[in-house]
Design brief:
Layout lengths: L3 E6 L3 H10 L6 E7 L2 H11 L3 E5 L1 E2 L2 E2 H8 L7 E5 L7 H6 L2 E4 L4 H17 L2 H14 L7 E6 L2 E6 L5 E5 L2 E6 L2 E5 L3 H7 L5 E5 L2 E4 L3 E6 L5 E5 L4 E3 L5 H9 L1
Parallel strand pairs: 1-2, 1-3, 3-6, 6-7
Antiparallel strand pairs: 4-5, 8-9, 10-11, 10-14, 11-12, 13-14, 15-16, 16-17
């Protein structure tokens, strides 16, 4: 059996230390990193690709749900939520995650949670866990990300969503066009479309999305498609199957 690669995310250093010490004697568990903030957690999940994340619900710079939102449910590893809420308030987390740990918790409860996670990860497909995380986000009210985390060599760029002019599919990646800058994001266009606010971004082609605030004109074409003119002069051709999207934009 391979080791379970674990990432600890909690803004309290004592909690992180306690978790690490509590797992020191557990076989086949490898702690690959510790984080104390939402931003650090996003970077670590992308770079380390852990099998399981122990994720604090509430941190100083945001929440565990912010982490799930920024990474995206499809890319998010299985999660055990750590929370100070009372037991009744965390039932929703129990239903939508591998498990939860209620602060303060002891080593026995920690180890049982890890074993439960190991068994469930082995038994279930990742897509099921992704759907559960998406359900959790939906149950808390949809919050569209205001930035995207993009790996750039040895660093991570935080790209404001509002800076994106248009988005282009590149197989299992997307190319974010931001003025003179471009960023390559490891995500499909369809998955990113589901994460972005539909009131701000429009799918106009199977390989293209556009920031609605950048459109200055829409030109009908003889083929029944359209040409979107963006600020700066860029023109993007729409696809036939997305004609209704463009027509709705014109009507509204």
């Amino acid at each position: 059996m391979s080791s379970l690669r674990l990432l600890i995310v909690d803004d309290e250093a004592l909690i992180r230390s306690g978790i690490r010490n509590g797992l020191a004697g557990v076989d086949q568990v490898e702690v690959v990193g510790e984080c104390g903030s939402v931003e650090q957690a996003c970077h670590a999940i992308i770079s380390l690709r852990p099998d399981l994340v122990l994720l604090d619900v509430q941190m100083q710079d945001g929440s565990g749900l912010d982490v799930v939102q920024q990474i995206g449910p499809e890319q998010m590893p299985p999660v055990i939520f750590i929370t100070a809420y009372d037991e009744y308030a965390v039932k929703a987390f129990e239903l939508n995650a591998v498990d939860y740990l209620l602060k303060p918790f002891d080593e026995d409860r920690l180890r049982r949670s890890i074993e439960r996670a190991r068994e469930r990860i082995a038994a279930e497909h990742q897509i099921t866990l992704a759907e559960q995380l998406q359900a959790l986000l939906n149950s808390k009210g949809r919050k569209w990300p205001d930035r995207l985390v993009v790996r750039n060599g040895e660093r991570f760029d935080l790209v404001p969503v509002e800076s994106i002019d248009w988005i282009e599919s590149a197989n299992n990646y997307v190319l974010l066009h931001c003025g003179v800058k471009e960023h390559l994001l490891s995500e499909t266009l369809t998955n990113l479309e589901n994460r972005l606010d539909p009131h701000k971004f429009l799918r106009i082609h199977r390989g293209r999305m556009v920031n609605l605030s950048r459109i200055v004109a829409v030109h009908p074409m003889l083929s029944g498609t359209y040409e979107m003119e963006l600020r700066g002069g860029m023109r993007l051709t729409t696809g036939r199957q997305y004609r209704e999207n463009v027509q709705d934009l014109i009507r509204n």
